[in-house]
Amino acid sequence: MNLYLGIDFGTTGARSTVIDSQGTVHCETEHTFANNGQQQPELPSVWQNALWDVIEQIPPAIRNQVRAIALDGTSSTVMLCNTDGIPVCEPILYNDARGAAVTERLRAIAPDNHTVISATSSLAKLLWLQEGGHGGTAPTFFLHQADWLAFLLHGKLGISDYHNALKLGFDVDTLCYPNWLIEGIAGAATPELPQVVAPGTPVGEVSAQVGDRFGFSRDCMVCAGTTDSIAAFLASGVNLPGEAVTSLGSTLAVKLLSHTRVDDSRYGIYSHKLGDLWLVGGASNTGGAVLRHFFTDVELDNYSTQIDPEQESLLDYYPLLKKGDRFPINDPNLPPRLEPRPTDSVEFLHGLLESIARIEARGYQLLQELGATPLTKVYTAGGGAKNSVWSAIRKRYLKVPVVTPIHTAAAYGSALLAKQGTQI
Fold first, then answer.
1. CA angle, 89 as apex, 86 and 91 as ends, to 5°?
2. What residues contact residue 267 under an 8 Å CB cut-off, 6+ apart?
3. What DSSP element (H or E) covers 16?
4. How far apart are CA 137 and CA 188, in angstroms?
5. Among 49, 96, 240, 417, which is most exposed with the fewest C-beta within 10 angstroms?
């Protein structure tokens, strides 16, 4: 039997899903990060251990039948490595806004309203690393999280996909790095940018070392990956323009399948290429991480059942754990708004859920105002998809059907990408 392995690196942990040619799940494994995967010493080691752990948990008889592997990572989580693939400094996470310090240089380099003009873009982080001399004088490679993790499997350094490379400035129309980018980063401490291929493209067979350790067949292929939110979109099976996926994980990400492309850095909106269509969307720092900061999972379940989703909350929050958001307001200094806080925990949770729903609805409204295909249906992925009260609140704001797809796990979407790679 031919099986396909997808591995997802999200904000709180790593997960794997193995499927067959019909999309049936044969195995799922999980590894949770300590400290929720936030900045900590030896983060690359944490990721590497998680990668080996989710693979190790797959029964050997299943690993032996895996024909292809694809992996997704958090968008704009980046790192510098030496020519042996060893990180030379700590990675910079997806939501790290230190790139705000180089905004002036970023605006001087990039075209107006370009996707990269954001404090959290991959290019902003590259410029910050350059200006700080963090790569030293020896040759380095600039990689995304998914690029580096795939390298650990196939051993080919410096290969990315055009979903991860979008916020680095890669042009998906011409399928190359634009001149303004190459010239803008030129200098003595310029790292080598990754070679970019289409997501799902076969890159190389698993290395002999990885194959021997885990019992993969010699011809098991590692394919180019994607970002975690696009992997969740792929898992949903959405293929009609106007349909969208909201990923309610630690953060809130919206993706709308559209005939037209929309890019506007003023609002943190960008488009990914998906076949002949465009995946238009953005990602906010609000979401499940804020809820978990105030409530345990048991409390969330308990309090949610006491909320009437048809009753509007009068609390108007902008729920963030720290200042700064990316979409639908792109402002690294945007302050959290979590006051007034009522003494009733149910009322407080109601206000949080409703406020996040408002941010989501405003996001989709913006996409359509700027030319995206009109919204017809929203599929929900991530942990928030399980909260039926939250779904009912969101439906009231979105004014379209809100449904949960059969498959919501990003690892499942990456497994589909691996299967697609064997057909290229």
1. 95
2. 282, 327, 328, 329, 330, 366, 370
3. strand 13-20
4. 8
5. 240
E strands, 206-268, in order: 221-223, 226-227, 243-248, 252-258
Would you state the torsion angle of the CA atoms of residues 374, 379, 385, 390, taken in this order, to the nearest 10 degrees? 30
Sign of CA dihedral 92, 98, 100, 101: negative
Query: What is the CB neighbour count within 10 angstroms for residue 294?
Result: 15
- Which of 33-42, 132-141, 157-166, 289-298 bottoms out in mean pLDDT, i.e. has the lowest? 33-42
The structure tokens listed for 350 are 């109601």
Range list of H helices, 133-165? 145-154
- Which tokens go with 326? 């990316």
Tokens matching residue 82: 């030496």
Residues 239-272: tens digit of each pLDDT = 899 999 998 988 898 999 999 999 988 898 989 9
Judge contact between 416 and 23, C-beta under 8 A.
yes
Distance of alpha carbon 18 from alpha carbon 20, whole angstroms: 7
- The pairing of strands 66-73 and 402-403 is unpaired
> Taking a C-beta distance cutoff of 8 angstroms, is the pair 85, 148 a contact?
yes
Looking up tokens 């106007």 gives 242
Q: Which residues pair with 243 in a beta bridge?
A: 377
Q: With residue 99 as reference, give the H or E element that holds it.
A: none
pLDDT tens-digit readout, 286-338: 999 999 999 999 999 999 999 999 999 999 999 999 999 989 998 989 999 99
Q: How far apart are CA 273 and CA 271, in angstroms?
A: 7
Query: What's the token pair of residue 387?
Result: 């909260």
What is the number of other CB atoms lying within 10 angstroms of the CB of residue 410?
Answer: 31
pLDDT digits 0-9 by tens, 47-106: 999 999 999 999 999 999 999 999 999 999 999 999 999 999 999 999 899 999 999 999
Residue 389 carries which side chain, given as an amino acid letter? Answer: V
Strand, helix or coil for residue 353: helix
pLDDT of residue 90: 92
Instruction: Kindly tell me the burial class for residue 268, based on how many C-beta atoms sit within 10 Å of its own C-beta (0-12, 13-18, 19 or more).
Output: buried
Q: Which amino acid is present at 135?
A: G
Kindly report the number of other CB atoms within 10 A of residue 370's CB atom.
Answer: 15
- What is the number of helices (H) and of strands (E) in the chain? 13, 17
Average pLDDT over residues 117-131: 94
In whole angstroms, how far apart are CA 28 and each of 74, 262, 385? 20, 35, 19
CA distance 157 to 263: 30
